[in-house]
Amino acid sequence: MIAHKGIVRWRISVQGVSAHGATPELGRSAVYDGARVALALEEYAQLLAQRETHPMLGHPTLNVGKVNGGQSVNIVPDKCVFELERRLLPGEYARQTLDDCEDFLRGRVGAEVQLSFEEPYLIDPAMETKPNAEIVSALAQAQRATLGCARELEGANYGTDGSKLAKAGIQPVVCGPGDIAQAHTANEFVAVEQVELATNMYAHLLANWNQ
Question: Looking at the chain, which residues constitute the CATH 3.30.70.360 domain(s)?
Fold first, then answer.
């Protein structure tokens, strides 16, 4: 795998005015305003799906993963908080994408909806290594020698620690035993036979590097 998406995660707060549930007209429900924000975020996500795609990674995405609002059923909620993440393509930057999302929301929900955008609590850049990089050809040779064939170059929607290496100026390739379908599941596992094959592949790669 020579490319994967990056991630930026942050929170958006909607501010309302609290009041007793018996007199809701005296307040302003952050949940009602939050519903308008949610619909706008859905529209924004749909627009992202129409942007130019990456040949390996497709289009950028947005997901609203958590929503929290209200204190009690008899109180008009004065706050509603969205927690969301944006998956980044190579060449996209967290601050740029956050500003783009904020501009879109403010234009859709109107100035009467009080929005607050928190600083992101997680930023992980996208990763992309060129197909003709030295590490890619060296790994392909090691695969042919130990596995019988070179694997097809791919990209992924999920992230890895390879993005940290790429940020440091290293050209990483993500390649190892197991199947991503088993990752982060209740019965997560890697077959011993695949660990052995990967070990042989790594050993061949290191022994023949730059030869």
Answer: 3-124
Question: By C-alpha distance, which of 193, 190, 204, 196 is closest to 150?
Answer: 204
pTM of the full structure:
0.88
User: What's the pLDDT tens digit per position in 75-109?
Assistant: 999 999 999 999 999 999 999 999 999 999 999 99
Instruction: Pull the structure tokens for residue 122.
Output: 């997680």
**In degrees, to the nearest 5, what angle opens at C-alpha 187 toward C-alphas 197 and 124?**
75
Residue 142's nearest CA partner among 91, 94, 196, 200 is: 200
What topology is assigned to 129-207 in CATH?
DNA polymerase; domain 1 (1.10.150)
